[in-house]
Amino acid sequence: MTGPGIDHPRVAVIGDVGGHLGELRAELARLGVPDDGRGPLPPGLSVVQVGDLVHRGPDSEEVVRQVDGYLRQQPGQWVQLIGNHEAQYVRRAAFQWSPALDPRAADRVQAWWREGLMVAAVGLSVDGEQLLVTHAGVTSGFWVSVLGAPATVREAVTAIRGLGDDPALFRAGCMMQGRDPDPLAGPLWAAAASELAVSWAGETLPFSQVHGHSSAWDWDAGAWRLPPDLAAHAHLDEEDRHVTLILPGGRIVGVDPDHRATPRSPWRGWEAGGPQAVVEVIR
Ligand SMILES: [Mn+2]
């Protein structure tokens, strides 16, 4: 049953938090979490956090502690995706980051992965639109060559989770290698413009996607990182700090607020649902 006054189902996809506890709590408070965003998730609200919870800001350990509470106490309402910064703690580190998480927080992140509380993909169905949510997005090359071109979000989620610890999942692209775009950059690393968006140019998306990690818009330069033919189909939402690329078959929504050592403002999660909406989380 849904309707006014009832806690209707809704989903919020929260972008890269980067260790900014105050930013996470402010957004959770806005979504209805009591005690200034420290309390339990309210009925009806599901949160998907796209990964990169940690590292850039000052409070990574406390961010991990709060999320650990949701994953342990309200696992049906918090979906934690793995980002390249969490991957540092579940396998051999791909890059140097200082300061690293303290051992207790690192152990928690490792346990999330081991216990299946942190995953690489989740699906959403919102009023019939199917959206795949991953940290960095699934490129056309990865979709075909690694996943076998699944037609539905449900199949894509199953295929990505079935990869387990396969190195293909963790394959870094141009952001690590610093050179040409890699058509097989994995969904923890694909660069939003040169690897993700460009890979789908001229293709038909099998389904929509939501991702964090990086943005097709350069917030500092105030310019698209996209070639002009793709930029013509891209939309910027400066209030929410979202970027949407409309392509045949669906859309690709980027929700990374691009927090650095200092957080960006304003920003918001990407929300779906409402009194009339039909929302399903596809795990
Ligand atoms: Mn990332």
Automatic annotation (TrEMBL):
InterPro entries: Calcineurin-like_PHP (IPR004843), Metallo-depent_PP-like (IPR029052). Residues 10-137 form the Calcineurin-like phosphoesterase domain. GO terms for molecular function: hydrolase activity. This is Calcineurin-like phosphoesterase domain-containing protein. The lineage of its organism: Bacteria, Bacillati, Actinomycetota, Actinomycetes, Propionibacteriales.
